[in-house]
Specification:
This protein is α/β, with parallel strands linked by helices. It is built from seven helices and eleven strands. It folds into two domains: about 180 residues, Rossmann fold (3-Layer(aba) Sandwich); about 50 residues, Alpha-Beta Plaits, CATH 3.30.70. The protein is globular and about 60 Å long.
Length: about 270
Amino acid sequence: MMKIKKVWAVFFSPTGGTEKVATTVAQTVAMALNAAYDTYNFTLPQNREGEVHFGEGDLVVLGTPVIAGRVPNLLLPYLNDKIKGKGALGVPVVSFGNRDYDDALIELRNIMEKNEFQTIAGGAFVSEHSFSRKLGAGRPDGEDITELKAFGQKIAEKVKSGWVYDGPVYVKGEEPIRPYFTPRDRHNVAIDIRKVKPKTEEGCCGCGVCAESCPMGAISFEDPTMITGICIKCCACIKKCPIGAKHFDDPGFIYHKEELEELYERRANNAYFL
């Protein structure tokens, strides 16, 4: 049996869904293998500055949200260049907002393999959609947690079984990786929301919670009404604002949000691969 000394949950999670996915799986594996457990949260910009190194004896559950069917493109430089496996076991996990995860999981698996992780399992789990409080509302919920723990148990059993690495774990997805999902209106015209930024209502109390929680460091601490950098539409500023002062008013964004809610308000299924 391969000896795992420490199980890590490593994640980018602006609104907490991916964190719950990664930590639940990692804690379950650690407990089943009687191994130490630790976390590395690279959500905030200051935690993406240096390299993170793992090695033999580590098992790393690496989690990102799905944006437009892919790993968030602004995370790719960090993921590709700063997280080093060096023979650690790897479990890519992605959280998606009720539509689909498209090629995000296979993309994250490939990144881990390139960075010298030996992937043993992978999964895609539903979290509440960043844009919406309807799509995947409250997920991961109790039913999801049960499924996440079952996945963690199966990973531990695979390690205990004497598993020997013989190439990347199979996960659903296409290669070459497909382009990012493009929202379209009813006339099939593309909706471009890449430069859309949230607005701030006059009632803003200036508490700075939005600036503290922005994963891109895009909100001014001196004046939280100012969005000075790139916005990835994670909606951490909207969902964490204590008085609800942040919102989007762009017509294309609102149309895309309402279209998603109309098409995908259902209980989407999780998927995992071993």
